[in-house]
Structure prediction request, 272 residues.
Amino acid sequence: MARLLPFFCSSLSSRLTASPHFYLRSLTTLPLVHTMTDPVESGKRIAAHQAVDEYILPHHKAVGIGSGSTVVYALERILQKPELHHIVFIPTSFQSKILIIDGGLKLGSIEQYTDLDVTIDGADEVDAKLNAIKGGGACQFQEKLVAEAAKKFVIIADYRKKSEKLGTQWLRGVPIEVIPMSYKAVQQALQTRISAKPETMALRMAKMKAGPVVTDNGCFVIDAHFGPIADPKSLLRDIKLITGVVEVGLFCGMAEVAFFGMEDGNVSVLRS
Ligand SMILES: O=C(CO)[C@H](O)[C@H](O)COP(=O)(O)O
Prediction:
């Protein structure tokens, strides 16, 4: 686990380019380090462990697994609980598929399992009404698909993600997945056709590769920052109506609960 941490402390883009086998080997073969000095990593872990303990239960049959660095701690907890190992786990990205496989857990697909007991996932920002910005790892389409298939959608995050209003903590913008040939048209429409104007907007570029980030679905991502978002649902609706938009990283009215690992070592739980 200790070797796993520097990898996940690195930037989102390097997360996408580094080999997932690196941390999965660490997850399954290295002794776990139980004392953590980094409050962010420790926050992710305590939130993830408590959420798994409360929401992933031995009678469950199919569970969705989100993407990102916090989800690794959910997998860590699942691996510690043999009574959960009969469950089929449904990934939301290449990253979470490899996590499930290398953890020796049962892998299913969203085509096989359309009704899930619960989906557990990280987030980039969560407001007081449990609306969330997601897609920092460019996985928002599959994450939304798998979250919508679940009876319960559970968010796990560290204290930095907790906010009163979306757009005030996560300043990189709302991730918008688009069909590649449409990215210019979508950028133009974002400036002219929706009521909330983006303050900043950029095509997400890859690191260690010339050109844009390409999602697991072969699409591009535009990050559009709108400042504090007054009405996340109506912004979501407006953006989705733009031709070329595949999915928007605004998850409105979906989460049943969010677990935030706080700096003081406690977990703050926000329920709907
Ligand atoms: O939405 C996501 C990926 O598309 C992640 O869940 C989100 O970016 C949070 O990541 P992390 O747990 O690494 O902070």
